[in-house]
């Protein structure tokens, strides 16, 4: 059954007609829902109305992710086949309620039933009968691409805290397992940080691991719990999925030459946002099986980490006597800290903290961004990959949305940032 078929259950279909002028279940009271004051969505947005509409969209995305999880649990992972009893998630009803209130205020059409709202989710947000006050680029976004969540919807769902979705669960578990592997194997703060960075980098560089790779890693990171289960094994089991093979030997697989994500036979591209890599065949030598990243690991660590990995590689090329790069300082407070040597004798070192963000919506990025004060820095910079600039007004939208949320945080694209860092490095180290 598709995501939409579920909504067509009779109980739900009857529901909206029965409410008359009353609001659907789960609606906030009228005085908690701002009226829309803008008839022209995207232009001259009123901040309050925009905040409300982003909340509505986030609720919908969290609900779609929740429905997918329920479906996966109901039929062991086959997304389309489940018959699912029970009501739609609370977030879905809340979002529908918010749309209902807005439609009342505007005198516009509203989704008459859940099936209709699912249909809306397949259309660009800017074309919905209830006009949404969203940034220009976001009005182009769809929430459902066929029966799959769009990239926009995946990221929006991720930003809704406490949205109980499988991906968030795996993301949190992976993070926790990575952290305990680093803590248990690291003797002292520095060693913990070093192992943390190594495992974070593994998630970026190695979407596929053979069991031999894992064995080699386990010899280095060998600490185990009371049941002799190693912390590394727990980490790998959480972040990756095992594919057993019948006999030891080489397995031929397809992957993207650039980002190294696995690709299916016959695929023309890899499908990773911003990646133009071509598919290639490669061999994995394994004893009993190989590991590929869990969907959530790919979504939350690998794919967004590609930009982080690229930046760290480029920063490592800067002269070490002028600038030092610390990846993921304070166990990931920021993606990197750059420490420039003093410009002249008696001067001070200067630190920049950077966060690499590859996010479809600048507004959602800004809404979810927290500037972590644990790293004292002269400049705090969000670095955006070049492919996001294809969205018109992306950087301006991001700067505007950050304004008032994260004071003093700058926004630079990848190339501009590397240029700034190189210029600043060339002035550093004069004190010697
Ligand atoms: Zn790729």
UniProtKB/TrEMBL annotation:
Q: Which residues form the pPIWI-RE three-gene island domain?
A: 87-209
Compositional bias, Basic and acidic residues, is annotated for 34-46
Q: Where is the REase associating with pPIWI RE domain?
A: 305-426
Which domain of life, per UniProt?
A: Bacteria
Q: Where is this region: Disordered?
A: 1-51
User: One Pfam annotation, family name?
Assistant: pPIWI_RE_Y
Query: Residue span of the signal peptide, if any?
Result: none
Q: What is this protein called?
A: REase associating with pPIWI RE domain-containing protein
